[in-house]
Structures are given as C-alpha cells and as structure tokens.
Design brief:
4 strands, two-stranded antiparallel sheet, two-stranded antiparallel ribbon, elongated
C-alpha cells in the first residue's frame, strides 16, 4: 500500500506508475490539465518529434515490435471470426482455415484487411470482417476472375 501525494488516498502499488508519488488517476488528470494549454501541447509535440529524429533506430524498433504484436493479436481476432462465421467456405464448404478469406459483398471496403491489419483496433477490424462472407481462396479467385471478365466486356 502507498499514499498518493496529491489525493492523499491509500492505494495499492498497482495504482501507481513506477517512480511516481501520485497515483495513476492524479497523474492523468494533471496531464489532461497541461495539454489544455496549447503552447504546452505544441512544445511536447516538438520535443517528441526531436526525440524521434535523434533516436530513429530506437523509434523504428519500437514501431516494428508494436506492429508484430498487433499483427499477432489481430490474427487471433481473424481466426476467431472465421470460426464465428461458420469455419467453412460459403460456396463449396472447404474447411481449412488457412485457405479461408473474407470477401466483401457490399462492394467497396472501408479498408483492405490484408494490407493493414496491424493498424486497426479490434472493434474496427471486427466491424469490417462482419460485412464480409467467408470463402476459400479458390472460390475467391473465381469470383474476382468473373468480375474482371464482366468489367472488360
């Protein structure tokens, strides 16, 4: 247990950031108050920009690790939704989840699932995937090849 220097409440150590004498809630309130000041916000943004330039390798490494972690989490979400949508191709009944893909039935997607799964949060990803139909890669190729033929004629 530890006493917050600002609100004077006795809280568990989990309610404090390492090395801080104020609890997480008080620290966040202070940050919100500081960022209301436009000059402070601009100053912090400039400091962050300079740090990213000076520590380019560290920053890129951090982003790479974050993206790998997100990709893994989103891969789990995608696999869960494949099961939720029946776990098989809607046309031919093929069941191997490695070959199942999501096909947008309503035309233009909000974003391409394959090109940026790591930049989306769980809610956005689920909403987009639920607009799709689950089909195998073969049926998906057939659908798009017939669409291209119709568009060319």
């Amino acid at each position: 247990m530890k006493i917050c220097k600002k609100c004077l409440r006795e809280l568990s150590l989990d309610d404090f950031y390492n090395g801080f004498s104020s609890c997480k809630k008080c620290v966040l309130e202070k940050q919100k108050e500081l960022y209301k000041d436009k000059e402070y916000a601009l100053k912090r943004a400039e400091m962050s920009r300079r740090w990213r330039i000076q520590n380019k390798e560290k920053y890129q490494d951090y982003n790479r690790k974050r993206d790998i972690k997100r990709k893994g989490l989103n891969r789990k979400i995608i696999d869960e939704l494949k099961i939720k949508l029946g776990g098989k191709c809607s046309f031919c009944g093929f069941k191997d989840k490695r070959a199942l893909v999501f096909h947008h039935t309503d035309g233009i997607p909000d974003f391409r699932i394959t090109s940026c799964p790591c930049s989306r949060n769980r809610k956005e990803l689920e909403e987009e995937l639920l607009k799709c139909v689950l089909i195998c890669a073969n049926c998906h190729a057939i659908i798009h090849s017939t669409e291209n033929v119709k568009g060319a004629v």
